[in-house]
Design brief:
Layout (H helix, E strand, L loop, with lengths): L19 H4 L18 E5 L8 H17 L3 E5 L9 H6 L6 E5 L3 H6 L7 H7 L7 H4 L12 E7 L1 E5 H6 L11 H15 L12 H12 L17 H16 L11 H9 L5 E4 L3 H8 L7 E4 L10 E10 L5 H20 L1 H13 L14 H11 L11 H7 L4 E3 L5 H17 L5 H16 L2
Parallel strand pairs: 1-2, 8-9
Antiparallel strand pairs: 3-8, 4-8, 5-6, 5-7
Helix pairs in contact: 9-10, 9-17, 11-12, 13-14, 17-18
Amino acid sequence: MYRPPIRSTAALTTSLVLLAGLVACSSAPSSSAGAPAGSGQVTLTVGDRPSSSDPANRASFDKKVADFQKANPDIKLNPVETIWDATTFQAQAAGGQLPAVLNVPFTEPQGMIARKQVADLTKVLKDDGLLDELNPNVLKIAQDQSGNVFAVPTAAYSIGLIYNRDLFKKAGLDPDKPPATWDEVRAAAKTITQKTGQAGYAQMTTNNTGGWMFTTQTYAFGGSIENEDGSKATFDDAPSKAALQLLHDMKWTDKSMGQAVLYDMDGISKAFAAGKIGMYMAAPDQYRTLVQTNGLKSSAFGIGPMPQQGGDHGTLSGGSVQIVSPNATDAEKAAAIKWIKFCYLNKYVNQDAAVTSAKNGVAAKLPVGTPGLPVVNADQWSTYQGWIKPYVNVPLENFAPYTKVAADQKIIPEPPVKAQEVYAALDPVVQAVLGNPKADIPALLTTAAGTVNAKLGR
């Protein structure tokens, strides 16, 4: 999965690396031929080449470019170091300085579609056959209201509920049936604390993770953080108040959240792996951090879908899509899809690439087969799972509650404008609720909304 540092607005992906193979181009042979016969050679500028300060990844990227051109002699790639940057994108787009193909986060496609800054890829995706292979739930991120497709999702994650199966057993809870609602989360957390003495539930609160997880929880309660165009804060309402009230009651009435309040991703991962926390919100790829980095027994790891409250509202999702310049010719669009497929999706649609990637993962002692939010459809994902089955080294049964639901659970992208600044403004709200039993939740939200609106209005 695509997960840049937490300071980036590109999906607030912290240390997680969900679907990591998606971000690295595959060097396995492509099944593509070159450009259509008679169209002549196509030259395509592609972004996201690592800089010279990152020689290893730059060399790897350049090798993939060379491999692609060898497999597609009618397409010449011109790799450039341009990457998506919220502070420079609009000027680059207006000045015609963007490459033909560029990676952007999930938060961006809808705005780009509205501003006509991306090419309509519907026909070329149909002609290639890739359209039918993509996950229709994830594809909605890249579609307009008519269903036309303007980007190709290449990495995705969705937040779920991570839980300690051992603590569930000690508390007399069924480790194969994690809570499905927030009322059930509250009940399970209280039981875990009473039966084991550990915090039944914990929430991230610092370094923007507090706002990030509050956003996730607000979505699950049926609320939102910004309006559709990102011009106004919308979290000063009933769903957000209900989400915070639940946290308050778990902390101060049930006393099921322990003493620690100031957690970021690293801190909460270490405490969970040490058996001090029963549940917290994160994506499935936390498995690697918890088990390989922090020493949690693999058998103790469990994850379910995001609990909902008052209906099936959905969960926060992040990831990345590939966009194509609106000025691209039909031949250039076709070439772009071949490159995107080869570089980012090949292991999901090409058996040789899948096996090579899995073998490399095993050799590197990395988790292979970690479930997540697939960017390909259910049938293609099942085919891919069959290809890598001999190399899977994670306990798939522990992910089953998540995988049974996550692929179909509604996904909601992060706030479309200044997500990190919004999260920073919301961190103190969550901290106050968990740090003060008399915290005034409506006042905290009203103040934060004013702070956010001032930022959105700049």
